[in-house]
Amino acid sequence: MKILYFAWLRERLNRGEEEVSPPAEVVTISDLIDWLASRDEAFAHAVAKRSLIRAAVDARLVPHDAAIAGAKVVALFPPMTGG
Questions:
Q1: pLDDT at res. 82
Q2: Which fold is adopted by the domain 14-77?
Q3: Would you tell me how many other CB atoms lie within 10 Å of the CB of residue 36?
Q4: pLDDT tens figures, 30-82
Q5: What is the reported pLDDT for 54?
Q6: pTM for the full model?
Q7: CB 9 within 8 A of CB 46
Q8: Using CA atoms, how far apart are residues 71 and 78, in angstroms rounded to an integer?
Q9: Residues 9 and 53: beta-carbon distance below 8 Å
Q10: What pLDDT score does 81 carry?
Q11: How far apart are CA 9 and CA 47, in angstroms?
Q12: What ranges do the domains of the chain cover?
């Protein structure tokens, strides 16, 4: 699956995307964030305040307990503001 990073997450990680193959036990957005944090110290630091991270699965906004089975793209980003 492709992971997309936006806004300050992208800047802090110094990358906009990456391809990953999470293990079978990674079944939700929350699990995915935990797994990504366990393998990348910069990511762990960037998402230390999990409540600030929003997610979308295949372009649909989802909560952290949403399933990722079959997802092609997961986007992670800070809260959005309008203007």
A1: 56
A2: Ubiquitin-like (UB roll) (3.10.20)
A3: 21
A4: 999 999 999 999 999 999 999 889 999 999 999 999 999 999 999 999 887 65
A5: 96
A6: 0.93
A7: yes
A8: 20
A9: yes
A10: 62
A11: 8
A12: 14-77
